[in-house]
Amino acid sequence: MLRRLPAWSVLILFIAVTLGVGFFGARATAPAIPTWYAALNKPELTPPNWAFGPVWTALYVMMAVAAWLVWRHADEKKPREAALRAFWIQLALNFTWSWIFFQAKDPGWAFVEILVLVAALLVTILRFARFSRAAALLLLPYLVWIGYASYLTLRIWQLNPRT
């Protein structure tokens, strides 16, 4: 179905869906920032709250462009579908982390979940690299940020054992 649409419109669709996932993840996050999250002990390397929005917006756009590149340039249908399936799985895990950490207020389970996300993202990068080096490279800043988020999640869990 998407093959019938102009490539630019599919790019817009990928961006809209990816940013939409970010938006709904932020809905879990926002109410907890001034209350529960503000009261937590945080590691020294925690960025200021204002930094998360711009960073995540840029990462979501890069993720969407990466997926679009795979969608656009892949010739083999089944491997392309597997690569895009890996993308949607890691995006769902990304969304789920926000709900576990901020809504369930459970840094321990959020840490376990983010490790699964890292693994899913690595699979996605490897699958994307088969079709587009640019797509794989576009996911590397996201991998670095998720690695950093993993550290923050672990340290928050350790610094707040009763949470």
Structure description:
By secondary structure, the chain is mostly helical. The chain has one domain: Ferritin (Up-down Bundle), CATH 1.20.1260. The protein has helices spanning 7-29, 33-39, 49-73, 77-103, 107-129, 133-159. α3 (49-73) packs antiparallel against α6 and α4 runs antiparallel to α5 (107-129). The mean pLDDT is 93.
Strands, helices and their partners?
Elements: H1 7-29, H2 33-39, H3 49-73, H4 77-103, H5 107-129, H6 133-159
Gap from first CA to last CA: 46 Å
- Assigned CATH class: Mainly Alpha
- Share of β-strand residues: under 5%
Number of strands: 0
Tally the helices: what do you get? Answer: 6
List low-pLDDT spans. Answer: none
Helix content: over 70%
Which outline best applies? elongated
Q: Domain count, please report it.
A: 1
Q: Give the structural class.
A: mainly alpha
Give a short account of the largest sheet. none
Overall mean pLDDT stands at 93
Using only C-alpha atoms, the radius of gyration works out to 17 Å
CATH homologous superfamily classification = TspO/MBR protein
Order of helices and strands: HHHHHH
Give the tags:
163 residues, mainly alpha, Ferritin
Task: Kindly summarize this structure in a few lines.
This protein has helices at 7-29, 33-39, 49-73, 77-103, 107-129, 133-159. With 163 residues, the protein is mostly helical.
